[in-house]
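Marked as duplicate of an earlier ticket. Keeping the data here for the record.
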Amino acid sequence: MAKAGRGVTRRDSKRRILRPGESVRADGKYQYKYYIEGTPHFVYSWKLEPTDKLPKGKKPCQSLREMEKEIETQITVLTNMPDGTMTVCELVDRYLQTKTGVRQSTRQGYITVQRLLAKQPFGSLKIKSVKTSDAKLFLIKLQQEDGKSYSSIHTIRGVLRPAFQMAVDDDILMKNPFGFQLAGVLINDSVTREAITKDQMKKFLKFVHDDYVYCKYYEVVYILFHTGMRISEFCGLTLKDIDLEKQVVNIDHQLIRTADMRYIIEETKTEAGKRKIPITDDVTEMFRAIIEDRKAPKNEKLIEGYGGFLFYDENGNPLVAMHWQHRFNHMVGRYNDIYRVQMPNITPHVCRHTYCSNQAKAGMSPKTLQYLMGHSDISVTMNVYTHIGLDDAEEELRKMEAFRKAQAEIEKKKEKPVSRRMFKAT
């Protein structure tokens, strides 16, 4: 490590004492110098501590001292790695360092897994001591004792399995202890988010429309049910993305709020998510009403160059997915407090799934529906068609039978009448 001169205490512009290896460059950027096997390495940041404010115009970044902690962990891992004495937590940390370029939502999921492992005794085990039975028992404990859902454990295992595989590929371990099928170990208690029926959708929309509290959200609920947009895509819409004359909505980004309350613009979930969707007359009128009633703050904040969002909170920040999730929860709760026949859980994603199902039942081609939904894989779209049940099949058969009879009647009318004389002549 770099050492300060004897008897000299270096400080930054805020009079804070700099640690060995730390310095401030001429442009105001902080620098940390460290050595690995005698070779100098450097990291830089505009912030010394996590609580420092970012200079105007600079992109969000980790503070220098956060980086220093990670470097200390890396050096420890590199020291313990060859003989397998590194812990499960250290292995996961190293694996996640190889996952560059991931979306913010994915990275937040990684952080959640890291925090969970740090609190579990399993996370402090040496990787060379972990057996397949240990791995299975750990996941069973998460479900049966800690109350973790199947989907959450699936995510955790989705990090542990490739992390241990990396150790196998690096010749540290002989076998991956997480190489088993999850279905044979845990009970799948996950509930598939199903689409609601057309009748339920109509009743819910009417309730929202007529309710004196939630009527102000009617247009949003209607749009989500009739476009299939992801809620993060809807939150990211700006005035420039909505063409009321051509009746087209441009979707090429989404608005996300991170766990540390930063607002960021990300590309759509997949490349296929970038699309221009046509909207019907009724959806156009819903957007028109939103734009006419739009209450923007006096000084609209730009999020990475984007401004003109449709909805803002009391602090002048654009609304994000969580806001709408809470609103849907309250709307469904109020509905169920009033009516005896209960409404199932409706979320913005259920609206998306309902739109997809309705279009499939209406006979829209899978490829067209794939484009409108922004699915990267046609198999995701086709799963909607496989969810069609008995009632849908009976309705489709009735339609086909009615069509067959109509065609038969048309053909019958086309036939020339045959007189009795012709029969007598023969």
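See parent ticket for discussion. The longest strand covers residues 30-36.
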